[in-house]
Design brief:
Number of strands: 0
Number of domains: 2
Structural class: mainly alpha
Distance between the termini: 149 Å
Strand content: under 5%
Order of helices and strands: HH
Largest sheet: none
Radius of gyration: 45 Å
Mean pLDDT: 94
Amino acid sequence: MNRAEFITATAIILFVAFGLGWFAYWLLHRFTRVTQTEMEELERMAHDLHEAEDLRDQAIAYLEQREGELTSLLRQSEAELQATMDGLRDARAEAEDLRAYVSRINAG
């Protein structure tokens, strides 16, 4: 094999290797390409995700507000209960005093 044949064979081999590489790249790019439909679907999914996050944030805010209202109502109810219990205790003590007074008057 002389020098001209060697150069020609090397050029052909390199050209074939280049052609196979380019074809493999084109084939890979063709199968992994994102279509417009897929992009629209991704955008729709992203939009739905943002809406779901907004709804979640609104629900959390509502629950925190409702929890605050219920806590306030519970404290108010506990205060009213305590006041009622104090009043009942005083009324029982007064009733006991009146019973004792009536017993002393009836006995005396």
